[in-house]
Amino acid sequence: MYRIGQSQDIHNLVKGNGLTLGQVYIPCDFQVVAISDGDVLIHSIGEAIIGSLGLGDLGEHFLEDEQEPGFSSQKIIKYCLMLLKQYHFKIVNIDTLIIIDNPNLKLYKKEIKKKLANILEISIDQINIKATTTEKNFSNIIQSQAIVLLQKEN
Question: How far, CA to CA in Å, does 103 sit from each of 15, 39, 56, 83, 89?
Fold first, then answer.
């Protein structure tokens, strides 16, 4: 049996000293406005996993008022890996799209992919990272979209 999950996360950007994507720090003149570390890529992947299992959305599992400010999104991944084991599913592949005008993510995509493969306990060829811009129409946001394919383990 296969299951597919899809999600997106979007946050505002403000002047700052960098952002985190896929648990990789990216130095730039912006930071994400968020209760957590603002890792929109992890958030969209995590919610896609939760959704593919039919377990609602990220907000149902991580209530805002119960989280420490700035908490690491790696907490979300650990939780999702636990759910995958509990329900006997494995990740077949993940396809993602990050939308941000600045900085250009070209230099970081390979590192993000390697880091995500490691923390998700999958091979590097099971994950894809794409990036695009809004053509400067929405320079004050960052958005991530993720599609996850799971397979039931025997």
Answer: 12, 15, 32, 34, 35
Q: Which amino acids are annotated as binding site, given as ranges?
A: 9-11, 43, 57-59, 62-66, 132-135
SS3 59: helix
CA–CA distance, 89 with 145 (Å, rounded to integer) = 21
DSSP per residue over 109-132, as a string? HHHHHHHHHHHHTS-GGGEEEEEE
Distance CA 40, CA 142 (A): 8
What tokens does 94 get?
């993940």
Q: What's the pLDDT at 36?
A: 84
Question: Residue 52's pLDDT band (boundaries 50, 70, 90)?
Answer: very high
CB contact at 8 A, 73 and 37? yes
Range 2-152 classified under CATH 3.30.1330.50: yes
**Would you say the C-alpha torsion 46, 47, 50, 51 has a positive or negative sign?**
negative
Q: Please state the rounded mean pLDDT for residues 26-47.
A: 94
Query: Whole-prediction pTM value?
Result: 0.94
Binding residues for a divalent metal cation: 9, 11, 43
Return the HEC string of 64-91.
HHHCCCCECCHHHHHHHHHHHHHHCEEE
